[in-house]
Request: fold
Amino acid sequence: MTANPALDLAAAVRRGERSAVDVLEEHLARVDATEADVHAFNTVLGERARVAAGEVDAAVARGEDPGPLAGVPIALKDNLCTRGIPTTCSSRILEGWQPPYDATVVTRVAAAGAVAVGKTNLDEFAMGSSTENSAFGPTRNPLDLSRVPGGSSGGSAAAVAAGYAPLALGSDTGGSIRQPAALCGVVGVKPTYGVVSRYGLVAFASSLDQVGPFARTVGDAALLFDVIAGHDPADSTSLPGAAPVASARLGEGVEGLRVGLVTELVGAEGLSAEVVAGTRAAADALAAAGAKVDEVSVPATVYGLSAYYLIAPAEASSNLSRYDGVRYGHRAEGAADITEMYVATRSEGFGAEVKRRIMLGTYALSAGYYDAYYGQAQRVRTLIIRDFDAAYQSFDVLLSPTAPGTAFPLGEKTADPLVMYLNDVCTIPSNLAGHPAMSVPWGAGADGLPLGVQILAPALGETVMFQVAAALEAMAPAGPGSSAR
Amino acid sequence: MTAATATEWETVIGLEVHTELCTATKLFCGCANNFGDQPNTNVCPVCLGLPGSLPVLNRMAVEYAMRIGTALHCTVQSSLFHRKNYFYPDMPKDYQISQYDVPINADGWLALPDGRRVGIERAHIEEDTGKSTHVGESGRIHGADYSLVDYNRAGVPLVEIVGRPDLRSSEDARAYVDELRAILVATGASDGKMEEGSLRVDANVSVRRRGAPELGTRCEIKNMNSLRSLGRAIEYEAARQIAILEDGGTISQETRHWDETLGRTSTMRSKEEAYDYRYFPEPDLVPIAPSAEWVKAVADALPPMPADRRAAVAEAAGMAPDADPVVTVVRLDLDPLLNAAVAAGADGELAVKRLANEVAAGLEQASTLDPRAFAAVVGMESRSELTTAQARTVLKELLEHGGDPAAIAKAHGFEAMAAGALSGVIDQVIADNPGEWDRFAAGEDKVQGFLIGKIKAATGGNADLKEASALLRARRG
Reply:
């Protein structure tokens, strides 16, 4: 049975066997040891974290239960608003801005007893697949410092992989949790759209963004999922009613479950042979464990990438308009009038990839082009949902690779945006459909770096998705990320 | 422009009216919706558009919008929010959450007091912007030394009512806005205060040769802060366009700014400079899908609209619905007094006249006027127990001090004057003024005033002078 670091820590803290302050210091010591190389964090919350951990211990001493995440250190992606703590989105344009409020997920993990240790690095405004698009420098893969951790939630994935925290929160708009999870050898989950509140998540593409967990194990990811999931009246797109319970059927195996290997995603452009082989091996393992495994075609997923690169930039172009220098964040000096101030502020404040996507999105929404671009992309989205729904008539979950390959060297894909965009070819369809998907480690590539496999489920299908993930985890070949830390 | 050419041209006007809704809180957050508070005190992460904040729709704003749509005979339908993208410092997100191709209310009409219908294309929900004060010579953003922005108004709920180009004169436009304002106030959705900016009007103005089938090129006029400036701006703009066309020029479609002081419009944005708003569905909100029950409940709970009330008053008074006294009574909300008086048996026409004149003149006190006392005064007048002059005096005193009308009349010595008594007074006046009587009897009508004056004096003003005139003429034979 796999040890679950977060579950085990929380249990020990709740029983008074371990002090939350000691747990925190242990993790901060690891940060001190290697963070200068990894650069997982934009901000490390040493003193604040000590105060929070002290409160957890005090609660235990009073005989109170601090909650299911009692004393568990957690890393927060730096696009989640934290009251009085800089929230930068790894962008110059938000430099110096401190939100006056906490994101709902931040409130929820704190209420459950978790101790926030820091704000993690990301591709600027979550736009990227390598965390190289950060205004504050790239994050490196803790398993190989010459490689990227993936992105955009590269800092969160690296923090968990490096042992800075057993848990982290990220955001996933087109694969930004799952792809770095795969590249860092950890578990990463993109929940059903609307299951986790977006309130306080700085928007990239509102109709695609979801907050989700990183953890070292499926059990820990389920623990964090169950804390953050649930209706939030502050988010109009939050689903009413009870959220699915991720931890409900973790030990139940896959006997009799129907698993579909998605033809178009296994055959997607740019996948390495070992990735495809790994995914097929995972499917075989599930079959051996009693699942009914078959290939299934989800035809419209082949248009996912194209549709995504119209919808996401379109929404981003609007969401990022507010960074105009008028109210907060960076403002260019010396402009003669308001238009000049806008232009100079945004030219200085945004990085190249953000500018590229604002341009793409602005164009896609322009008068005369809307139907051909944004409108057409939305129709593709409808088709993808339709094709997934058809597949789920015959299958409980679907299986695919997460990322095209293992972690790649820094700088390798920065020259050609289209090559970088291909990183998300397998993860994007779930965002477009609003469906849940997660990546679990599945062995290693020839370079010794971790591979991941993706489990996709229908809307609100988290329970069965985690059930299958737990089974895969138990059967997975050893990988570099799986050694206990 | 000569009078002759003016008659060859027809002005075509369509109005866009924005009204703030009287909700306690803003459209998408819990901040107070209060006019006149200290700047930037009613703000929060949502209405400041801070990163990560999300809108949550105010149910009451939707209900008010539905009331407006119902009152304007629109189809109340399931609708969507869109984002209207453009940069402006008083718009915190640099996009406005509005409605675009699927508004909550579509295809209605408004009846002017004279019965003509003006089409309503749509009445949709959107959020207000903050308020900029540009400090510097121009008073506008370009050329300002600096600008101050108050975000208290940002996120205040608005309904924009887009009228069809069915208006043909500045008088039409003013009548439309006047009627629309009365309807908005009647629904309870708006206080209709143009001077506080809770009602704002933009005018699309074009001209064409009378009888031409096609509409001319229009200009949109902004910045009119009163009904008076609306009328002036339309007249100026129509004259400007006619002059250009008569000179052989063409009108370019543009947005123009009305300058109240200079009394003219000037170019604000040409068609080439017009924004591309890049509308797309607001992904942070879900569609509004009011249930049939909700739509019906809103319609059922709607109070009578001004037109219905005018019809009722007109019927009670035997007047036309657009007769001045009828319009006045309804505009000043005096029809409950009318209904009470009529219920108490008073003459409707007389009651409407007293309301439109004496009560309207003492409007501050009208709310304290006891409907039964008012009914009693009108009743006494209609039964000729009081003359018109006496009734006015009693009513004035009632408005100022209250009390019992009969007691007031008695205290003033206003006694009912029997026809016989008046006849005796007339006998005496004829006897005292034989020369004047002879001239009157010979047909010299202008002497009648003199004789009536004598009768009025002899009765201490208590005579019913209409009755006296009738009696004099009867005597003349």
